[in-house]
Amino acid sequence: MTGIGRRRFMEIAGAGSLAVPLTGTPTPVRVGVIGIGRRGTGLLRILLNIPGVQVPAVCDTNADNLAAAAASVEKKGQKPPEQYGGGPEAFRKLLARDDLQAVVIATPWEWHAPMAVAAMKAGKYAGVEVPAAVTLEECWELVSTSEETGLPCMLLENDCFGDGALMALNLVEQGVLGEIVHCEGGYQHDIRAGILRAGQLSWRARHALKRNGDLYPTHPAGPMAWWSSINRGDRFAYLTSTASKSRGINHYIKKYYGADHPHANAKFALGDVVTTVLKSENGVTMVISHDTSLPRPYSDSGETSIPLMVIRLQGTEGIFSGSLDRIYIEGRNGPNSKMHKWQDIQPYYQRYRHQLWKNLGAEAAGYEHGGEDYVCLSQFVEAVRRRKPTPVDVYDAACWSAISPLSEQSVAARSAPVEFPDFTRGKWKTPRRVEFLL
C-alpha cells in the first residue's frame, strides 16, 4: 500500500473494536445497491434479512426494477429508499451520499470495475459481483485504488462460501489431503435461454459475440485459489487456453426462433467449450472449463455441494470431489489400489464443517445456491460493520478476474502460454490464511 492507503486502512481497522455494542444489538450497516435486475434483486433480499442492514438508496436504469426494489425495502419496515435512475451514470449520485458505508454492485460486467473504483474513491466499501473486471487495465485500477484509499473491494464470489468449498478449505489447512497438487473446476451451465431479450442480444450475449476465452472463471477459480494458497504463499505463474468451435448459440437461435431470425447467423466469437490450464509458481496445476452454450440440464438439486460445476481437489493423501460430494483418503482401505473406494462424505462434514457454516447454516437455509449467497454477503456486511478487511480481498478480485482477458490472449495466440501478472507486487510470498469474520 502507499503511505496514505496504509494509514487510512489502519484507521478503518482500528475502528473495529467499537463496532458491536455491549447490548449485542448489531451496529447498523447502511448499504446502497446498484443494479436491481434478477441477480441484484436476489442480493437485496438477502441484505434485507441480515441483522442490522439498512438500504437507504437503490440504483438501476430500469424504473420498474427501482419500484420493485423500493417496495421490498419498505416491506421490511425500512424507510423508502431514494431511487436513482434515468441513465447509466446515475450511480454517481448514489455514491455522493455521505450516509452510505458500502455499496453492492450487480450490474452488467463492463460496469463492475468502473463502479467499484468510483465507490472506493467515494469512501465506501465495494462489494462487486463477478467478475470484478473484464480487462487487465481494470484489474490493476482496482488494486491501485484499493491500496491508495485503504478501502476494500470484495468480489462477491459466492462459491468460495459454499458448505463443501469451506469444508474442503478446512481439509487443506489441517493437512487431511496432504500437499495439494492439482485442482479441476468448471462453470458448466446452459445459459442459452438468456441469449435474447425482447428479440435482441442480451448484454451477456454481446460479450460472446466479440470475445473468445473463459468469460466467467471466478466460480471455479475462487475456491481452488483459496485451496492452493494463491496470493497467500503461491501465485499463478502462467496459463494456456483452448477454445472449441462456436456452434451452440447459433443452433439454439435457429431451432427456437427460426433460421430467419436477425441473429441466427451472427458470427459469435466465443467457443462453446473453453479449457484453461493454470500453473502456479509452486507447481500446482488447475484446469478450468467454461461451457455455457450447449445443452446441459440444470443440476441445482441440493445433492451436490457446488452445483453447476465440476470440482476436484487432489493432494498427496487423497481427493475431494465437490461435484460428486465424495472423498477418498488413502490408507483407510489398505495399500492395495484395488481396494480403494470412495468414502462417505458426511463424517467429514461433521468433523471438518467450517465455523462459518456452523454459525450461519440455519440462517442461510432457503436462499439461492444452497445458502452460499447468504454466507458471502454476511461476511461482506460484517467486514463493513467492524471496519475490517474482507475475506476475498482486492488481490483475489483482480487475480481471479484476470483469467478472462489472459485466456482471450492465449486463445488468440493458438493456445500459447501467457504470463500471469503479480497483482500483489510480491506480497504473495508471505504465507497467510484466509481471514474470516467469525
Report the strand count.
16
Distance between the terminal alpha carbons, to the nearest Å? 26 Å
- Helical segment count: 14
| Shape field | globular
Describe what you observe in this structure:
With 438 residues, this protein is an alpha/beta fold. The chain has 14 helices and 16 strands. It has helices spanning 3-14, 38-47, 63-75, 91-95, 112-121, 136-149, 163-173, 203-210, 218-227, 248-257, 346-352, 355-364, 372-386, 394-412; strands spanning 29-34, 53-59, 82-84, 102-105, 125-128, 153-155, 180-188, 196-197, 200-201, 236-243, 273-280, 285-291, 309-315, 318-321, 326-329, 418-419. A hairpin with a 2-residue loop joins β8 (196-197) and β9. The longest helix has 19 residues, at 394-412. The chain is globular, with a radius of gyration of 22 Å. 46% of the residues are buried. The model is unreliable at 10-23 and 300-307 (pLDDT under 50).
